[in-house]
Specification:
5 helices; about 60% helix
Length: about 110
Amino acid sequence: MAQLEYTTIEELEDKYLGTVGTPRRDAFEASVKEEIHAYHIGEAIKQARKEKNMTQEELGTLMGVKKAQISRIENGHNLTINTISRAFKVLGVNVSLNCGNMRIVLV
């Protein structure tokens, strides 16, 4: 019987993306981190909307966008500071961002 050869995810990342510290690997990891942050922001908007018993369509109407745009926002796509601020403002949620030594309050 043939012996299976196993490869770890770390070995695959090194092979296809380069080792840790190389420009290609660093760019990939930064991109993944950015997408994870966007996903969490979208989830926070979705949770706040659901706590207010609102539909995506109702939130969209209050924000002046279509339901499809709310779906993209909640999935972490098309996020800008302006969009995030508008969504949380409409939902009545106070939000602040920590940027280094600076704290930004979105009102």
